Amino acid sequence: MPRIPSALIDEMVAHAREDLPNEACGMVHAREGAPVAVHRVRNTTASPYRYEMDGLQVARLERQRDESGETLFAIYHSHVASEARPSMTDIRQAFFPPGEIETGLFMYPEALYILVSLADDPPPSVRAWRIVREEPHLIEEPIEVV
Fold it and tell me: Is 9 left (phi over 0), alpha (psi -120 to 50) or beta?
């Protein structure tokens, strides 16, 4: 069961609230498997219905991880008015080229996908998922907030 510090959960929730009415997105880095930092990434679509992470920011974060020895723990984003569960659009986006679920490459095969839902806020719902090729393409990973 993934353990996530409450301060990191609070940071993702704050980002989701601050980016309203649009979806927020970002990455969570880990050290030795434990999440240590939330990195906000600009949603280039600026939309309440979908997100696309700024490619330049993502590249900088990948370089930062390489230099620091950190790893990617999770991709996170918010849902403004729906549950904290990846949509089919979110699932398609996890592959390259986007939408090629059966034949494409996983963009981040080891990463969790954390969703923050503001639909029932307060309190917001925060859930973690693994995206897989097999139907229904989702496996929920219960998280422990520490």
Answer: alpha
In degrees and rounded to multiples of 5, residue 50 shows phi and psi of -160, 170
Name which of 83, 94, 72 is nearest 116 in CA terms.
83
Reported as type and span, the H/E element at residue 117 is strand 112-117
CATH numeric code, 3-145: 3.40.140.10
Q: Averaged over 98-113, what is the pLDDT?
A: 89
pLDDT digits (tens, 9 = 90+) for 2-60: 999 999 999 999 999 999 999 999 999 999 999 999 999 999 999 999 999 999 999 99
- Omega within 30 of 0 (cis) for the link into 48: no
Q: Residues 6 or more apart from 98 whose CB is under 8 A from it?
A: 92, 104
The Cα–Cα gap between 22 and 79 comes to 8
Domain boundaries, the chain: 3-145
DSSP string, 4-66: E-HHHHHHHHHHHHHTTTSPPEEEEEEETTEEEEEEEE-BTT--SS---B-HHHHHHHHHHHH
